[in-house]
Amino acid sequence: MGSWKIKKMSGHCGARLEGVSLLNASKSDLEEMRSALFEYGVIVLPDQHLTPENHLSVAEFFGPINVNRFFTPVASHPMIAEVRTSAGQSAVLGGTWHTDHSYDAAPAMCSILSARQLPPYGGDTHFASMAAAYEALSPGLKKILTSLRAWHSDSSFSESNVGLESNLDAFRDPVLHPVIIKHPVTNKPCVYVNGDFTTHFENWSREESSALLSYLYIFVTQPIFTARVVWEPGMVAIWDNRLVQHYATADYAGNTRLMHRITVEGVPLESA
Asked: Does the annotation count 261 as an active-site position?
């Protein structure tokens, strides 16, 4: 029997893990945590209160760190991204449904977010299971989507007004990914398009792609596929970007919120 106490958060994704401090977790504790991540898509670990050094150590257990080329780094630890919302901001980073780093040829494996300063209310993060969304598709649409690939681009960052780096050298050429991917570890089929970074299907125009993509964005983020993380001081959340999309709620205007994020490198994605 493992050391963690694991409690599901919803029917299709999310689990809360308690009973182990990441500061002194054993290898078997970390392996059990990783297995839970692949099973539930997103895991939350309360009362961890990670230092930047602890945060880096946890990330390195999962794999090499991918330094995000658009985020402002933490000054003392440049491998950690600062996700800050100031009291004067009305929009927030991640305030639409998206998948981290889908614009990369080898998209991010997981993201690890550590709560540093929370508003007095709000700021919850929603997650949606792309595996559950796939299973709910009709057989006919599954067949069509499995034959398609789609372009993903980082171009949406050029229009951002939430304090991202404005370095033009950060932008890269668009990349192609299967619309239905096979998870690299579990082999689960998952829908892999998102409203922030997917632009159109391969060999389709943007106009031709728009209707089907718009339908998919709404379908895969239905409440039945989701779990909601209510942040607590010192909490850590880890999510697998191949298994879930996420959405940051901008309902705490006039307050400050600071999170530290580390992204772990992934691998090129294969079609299911």
From this structure: yes
